[in-house]
């Protein structure tokens, strides 16, 4: 079985669950935050929409500097409507799925580095980046949004079975 064949079912399941959560974000509360130190609903939703693109970057580059010295920083999306956020998410999921289907097994063990201002934040095999920095990271921020939905009395969708609202 190839790497793609082993990870695509999980990827598809997690992206479908994430989309269900994004479909419920309240447009009138994108600036809402649970605590002054917390990110807003809108920030979390945009981050979730962007993260599948990091899977593409993992397989198409050897590194990414999110704030290169003297260069343009990485541009994070700033959708201001639910539909704009969903459009970004759908576009990135489709591209990530294609990148997964196209990757060769010998490429997933190659190292990939995330940098900030030329300084490495981490270097890991691409397969580990996909699992930890992309999929687990998506699950982490999706959980934030689920809590934010609950705190705003918005029904939470089921993810690994029914939620308390289903």
Kindly list the characteristics that best describe this protein.
globular, mainly alpha, 166 residues, Four Helix Bundle (Hemerythrin (Met), subunit A)
Question: Quick summary of this structure?
Answer:
The protein has four helices and three strands; from the N terminus they run H-H-E-H-E-E-H.
Q: Could you characterize what this model shows?
A:
A 3-stranded mixed beta sheet has the order 1-2-3. β2 (111-116) and β3 form a beta hairpin. It is globular. The chain is mainly alpha-helical and 166 residues long. The chain contains 4 helices and 3 strands, in the order ααβαββα. It has one domain: Four Helix Bundle (Hemerythrin (Met), subunit A) (Up-down Bundle), CATH 1.20.120.450.
Terminal residue distance: 36 Å
Estimated radius of gyration: 16 Å
Mean pLDDT: 97
> At the first level of CATH, what is the class?
Mainly Alpha
One letter per element, helices H and strands E, the order comes to HHEHEEH
Share of helical residues = 40-55%
Which CATH architecture would you pick?
A: Up-down Bundle
Helices and strands in order:
Layout: H1 3-22, H2 41-60, E1 63-65, H3 82-102, E2 111-116, E3 119-125, H4 126-151
Parallel strand pairs: 1-2
Antiparallel strand pairs: 2-3
């Amino acid at each position: 079985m190839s790497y793609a064949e082993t990870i695509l079912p999980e990827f598809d399941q997690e992206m479908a669950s994430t989309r269900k959560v994004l479909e419920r974000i309240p447009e009138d509360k994108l600036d809402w935050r649970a605590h002054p130190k917390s990110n807003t609903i809108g920030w979390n939703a945009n981050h979730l929409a962007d993260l599948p693109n990091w899977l593409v970057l993992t397989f198409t580059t050897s590194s990414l500097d999110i704030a290169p010295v003297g260069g343009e920083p990485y541009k994070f999306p700033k959708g201001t409507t639910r539909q704009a956020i969903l459009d970004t998410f759908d576009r990135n999921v489709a591209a990530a799925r294609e990148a997964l289907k196209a990757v060769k097994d010998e490429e997933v063990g190659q190292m990939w580095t995330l940098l900030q201002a030329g300084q490495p934040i981490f270097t890991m095999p691409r397969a580990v980046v996909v699992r930890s920095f992309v999929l687990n990271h998506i699950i982490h921020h999706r959980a934030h949004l689920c809590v934010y939905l609950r705190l705003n009395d918005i029904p939470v969708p089921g993810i690994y079975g029914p939620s308390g609202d289903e």
